[in-house]
Design a protein that fits this description.
- This protein is of the alpha/beta class.
- The protein has helices at 2-6, 39-49, 126-140, 151-158, 160-173, 179-187, 208-217, 240-250, 276-285, 315-327, 384-387, 418-423, and strands spanning 23-24, 64-67, 82-91, 94-103, 115-122, 218-220, 226-231, 258-260, 266-272, 300-301, 341-344, 358-367, 370-379, 392-398, 410-413.
- A six-stranded mixed beta sheet has the order 10-11-12-13-14-15, with helices on one face.
- Helix 4 (151-158) packs across helix 5.
- It is globular.
- The termini are far apart.
Length: 424
């Protein structure tokens, strides 16, 4: 714990009825479609609310996300308690940075998209706003029934208009806090820099596997001569020795920062384009050059029954099987970028199955006195536009018990409503 603290990493409030880790776009600062770099604002929010006395009396957890733009899936603002999307407006010829703020999003057994709180909140008012929302949630939120203790249920009960009125009234009551400004000033010093100068990718023939990796795992930055490299970690796993080797490798190419992605991968930023062949060779040497990051083969799964006491099904087991099946297509299937698969071992949606093109969630099927773990299938969700579209539950998969039926999983589609039949 001390060694983690020495490099600015804490396990405090990673769990519990508090504000969890504040998240943001891994591409922030480098993406050409962003309004502005949200990194300093996410850092300031995280530091401000960590162990804040107004955020210690919740009935359940509270999640905050920052996104640099409205269209892409990097921040997933629409499924968070507070979702902040970068917005810019011009006032008297001056460019003002702020956020379009949504409140009360969430997945789980009762998924709900966040509601619009404000089209524009100036960036320097976000910490004050978050504190006021935390106080209102702590005062009015459910405490006894954990199943209804998230912010989305409080907003559903009060309505977004009344909730907005209460929050605005709470903001007027707040005593001024110098940290509203100081945390932003301190976070503004964050300035990620490249280790090596920009360069062009060498021309000429190269290994087909390198070309495939280049296509699926590398994307250009808005800064000329640099790229982001996504390290594909199947099932989100990396061994300790491989992680140490990756750290040593990174020190040769980038300055300081490696970011995590919502799809359980690692993102290397500010890689000079001329270094890409050598970086690929180094990653291949330690077994971390697998192509397909963010594509169909990059199946996201929660721990499921492997280690979670709430797990009903083996999410990781199904994910591993699907990854192996997709890989047999030699990239034709595995590298598709128009479909994603997410698997949760129960209804709690830790893998965001609601916003997957193809989602699975663990459930139980009962027949007389027998029960068996099964997967429900969710189709038609989307991570686009910050996770603004949820899929429909369409059926359950079971292993039939009749003799000679074989080991394959059978999918039973419920007819459901006319809407579902039309959708299918």
């Amino acid at each position: 714990m001390r060694r983690l603290a020495e490099v600015g990493i804490t396990t405090r409030e990673a769990c519990g009825n508090v504000v969890r880790n504040v998240t943001g776009c891994p591409d922030a600062g480098l993406c050409s479609s962003q309004g502005f770099d949200i990194t300093p604002h996410a850092l300031a929010m995280s530091h401000f609310l960590l162990r804040h006395p107004d955020a210690q009396n919740f009935g359940r957890k509270f999640k905050i996300a920052f996104s640099g733009c409205e269209d892409k899936p990097c921040g997933l603002a629409m499924i968070h308690d507070i979702g902040a999307i970068a917005a810019v407006k011009e006032v008297d010829g001056q460019r003002i940075e702020g956020f379009k703020v949504y409140l009360g999003g969430g997945l789980g057994a009762i998924p709900q998209q966040a509601k619009l709180y404000s089209e524009f909140v100036p960036a320097d008012e976000m910490l004050e706003l978050a504190q006021a929302i935390a106080r209102v949630f702590a005062r009015f939120g459910e405490k006894k029934n954990r199943a209804r203790a998230r912010l989305k249920f409080l907003i559903g009960t009060l309505g977004i208009e009344e909730f907005r009125r209460i929050v605005d009234e709470e903001r007027r009551k707040l005593p001024p806090d110098p940290r509203w400004e100081s945390e932003l000033v301190e976070a503004a010093d964050y300035n990620e820099q490249p280790l090596r100068p920009p360069s062009a990718l060498p021309e000429g023939p190269s290994d087909p596997e390198f070309q495939r990796w280049l296509k699926t795992n590398v994307r250009g930055q808005k800064q000329d001569g640099y790229s982001m490299v996504e390290v594909f970690l199947p099932l989100g796993d990396i061994a300790a020795d491989a992680l140490r080797e990756l750290a040593r490798t990174c020190r040769s190419y980038i300055d300081d920062t490696v970011r995590t992605t919502v799809t359980q991968n690692l993102l290397l930023r500010w890689v000079s384009n001329g270094d890409l062949p050598c970086l690929y060779a180094d990653l291949e040497r330690v077994g971390l050059a697998e192509p397909g990051a963010g594509r169909l083969a990059d199946v996201t799964a929660c721990p499921g029954t492997d280690s979670c006491k709430l797990g009903i099904t083996s999410a990781r087991g199904l994910a591993a099987e699907l990854q192996a099946k997709f890989a047999n297509g030699m990239g034709v299937i595995a590298d598709r970028e128009d479909i994603n698969v997410k698997i949760s071992g129960c209804f709690n949606a830790c893998s965001h199955h609601h916003i997957a093109d193809i989602g699975f969630l663990g459930s139980v099927q009962r027949k007389k006195s027998d029960t068996a773990p099964v997967f429900q299938v969710v189709l038609g969700g989307s991570t686009g536009k910050n996770g603004s579209s949820f899929g429909l539950v369409t059926g359950k998969g079971t292993r039939p018990k009749r003799p000679g039926s074989g080991p394959e999983t059978h999918l039973h589609l419920h007819r459901g409503t006319k809407r579902r039949r039309k959708f299918l």
